[in-house]
Design a protein that fits this description.
Elements (H helix, E strand, L loop, with lengths): L1 H146 L1
Length: about 150
Amino acid sequence: DDLYKKISEYEEATKESNGVSDKLDCDIRDVTKKVQKFDTRMEETMEQLQQSSSKMEEAEKDFKDKEDDVNAQNRRVLLLEEESRISVEKLATIVLKLAVMSKDADNIVKGCRHWESKTMNNEVEIEELDKNTREARRIGSDNEMKYD
């Protein structure tokens, strides 16, 4: 009888242990599934991180290229501004020279008009003298005829 009791207790303990074991096996399966889900999520997150890192590197490269372009354009602008400043200075010098030449040309034209006026006055005077000379010759020849 004691043996049956012990066997019965052992069988009961075995059933309880098997029940606990089954429950723990289910818990292990659940935890394993959760771990697998976390592993999958972690892999997906790592892939996203890698893609984001790749995009970030590409964006940084593009940014560096654009920054280099901006720096090159800034240098070009500085060169063009310097070129413009030099051109403005040359233009100012040329305009000043042109003004001086224009003033000289005005003085030359004024001198030409003065000499033209003098020449015309001299021509008028020469014509009057020539006329007076002809008149004097005519009078002289008339007087010679009268004298003869």
